[in-house]
Amino acid sequence: MKKLARGFTLLETLVASALLFMFLAGVLVILQILMRSVGEARLRLVASSLASERLETAKNLPYEVLGTVGGIPPGDLPQSETVTQNGQDFVVTTAVVYIDDGFDGVLPEDPIPNDYKRVRVTVTWAGVFQPKNPLVMATDVAPPGIESIANAGTLLIQVLDSAGLPVSTANVSIEASSLSPPIDLDTTSDADGRVMLPGAPECIECYRILVTKNAYSTDQTHVTAEVANPIKPQLSVFEGQLTQSSFAIDRFANLTVRATRSRQAGYATFPGVQFTLRGSKTIGTDTLANPVYKYQQNFITGGLGQVVLPNLEWDLYDLFLPTGSSIDIAGSVPLIPFPLLSGTSPTITIVTTANTANSLLFSVEDNADVLLPLASITLFDQSTPVATLSAGEAGKGDQGQAYFGGLSVQNYDFLVTLSGFTDATGSVTPVGDIYESIILSTP
Predict the structure, then answer these.
(1) Was domain 152-248 assigned CATH 3.20.20.80?
(2) Quick one: three-class SS letters along 44-95?
(3) pLDDT tier at 102 (50, 70, 90 boundaries)?
(4) The whole model's pTM is what?
């Protein structure tokens, strides 16, 4: 009697199929990696050949014309060029800069910092075999004789943040369209936040500088067409001299402005409030010597009584209502003006009330600038009490503040009291909307 041969069960067949699939998938991944490596290596060889060719071209140029079109030093080499090889586009970027060698000292001890030129060629390409890192090659080219700068000086751009610390990898755009040939150069700050450009052609107020960085504020020079008397005009360069200028940028901040109705109205949200936000930084003055502010914009609160303002520069900001507004500001947290720090996202709450011709807004703080809730403020006409109000409660938009509206234009005495603090007294005459800051001290 013959024995029947035992076959594979369904489970064994499935397991074997899964193992075979995993093996084939692994082989496919390995093949893809090998193909990518081979493809990228092939393109990198082409890129290396292009970079070497550009460096050889640079080394064969006369030293005095070794530079880039629109660059510092100026020359005939294009800053960026697209070259097609075997159907693949390569972007060849060339930078030529002077190097201040430490062997003979550096600026400012070395008055002639153009010891030699460094040519840096970067090649990038896109597509299936796009590399993670570009191909970069560089070479140094020495002058034929003693270093010198004819009709040129040195530009030194320093990029700092709000704390005065250097900002690296900031984008620095330098333009001087009035020169021949014109300068149009984009570069980045080094680890010390500096861009140093020996060999900058001399001129009077011709260098336009713009400093930017992703998610950062901007700083720049200004021309008289933008502001009559700029604080930071375009830069000048003089033969054999150093021109140094600092620019300040830092991370953007975001601000939420929230408006409510008065204390008596229960601090209800208040949509449709128009206001102006203005920073304290100025870029110069106009023809009448009035300040020209770097930032001033008008806004209106939305349906929830608030508006979010992104991408603001660090500054001390003022917030005020338009002329002829039907409302007054009866308190705010934080107090106005308020500092906005880089990289932060705070909220300011403003409490509003009906506008009156003459008013007094008191704020009561301790020596640590903390708003003191529930302090009592009394106004006197000579010795007769006119009105008494309590400063706003903790957590409210008028914490430590009290608003007196509908006053006459006359002298008022006031008394501010709070348990645990020494009383404060004074006098004030309300002409329009007057703000009075009170500091209470402990006994």
Answers:
(1) no
(2) HHHHHHHHHHHHHHHHCCCHHHCCECCCCCECCECCEEEEEECCEEEEEEEE
(3) low
(4) 0.79
